[in-house]
Amino acid sequence: MRALRVDSVADNQPVWRGRLLAGIGILLAIVCWQGYSATRQQAEGLQSALAEAGKQVGLTSARTPREASSPATQAAMQQARSLADFLQIPWNALFDGLESASSPEFALLSIEPDARKRQLKLTAEAASRDAVFDYMQRLEATPQFSQVVLLKHEKQQEEAEQPWRVVLIATWQETQPSQVAP
How far is the C-alpha of 65 from the C-alpha of 10, rounded, in Å? Predict the structure, then answer.
């Protein structure tokens, strides 16, 4: 039987086609680079002419490079942003939601807002574990809150009533302005 020779690349293909394509590619790259350089120089010339015309008319460029802020300035800006976020919290709506979910068996001890995450961290005491879960369900059923998560719970053994101390995270909804009927 005769040996079968399989050669996917023939040795007799002309090499000049590849060299021609490479040369055309290099030529196109050079032409594009020259066009880019000419356009860039023209744009810089127009910008300088525009700046000169502005100076002649009396307009001065208000764009000066900004200096890096000092750490004290950056800290003050961060504090101002935090205060602005805090002031934009919809307190009335949130307190309405908290009050509508309240019960005699559940007492809020502290409320810590996180305006960026749109969450309230609630620390509370409840008479029983069931009172905690009931409050969570009532709070999540209000239109002001979308998620209520139990973050931490602990039974206070050293106190006489042995209440449950809990930490909840409640995410508040965007309040919609009420529509006034004509």
Answer: 62
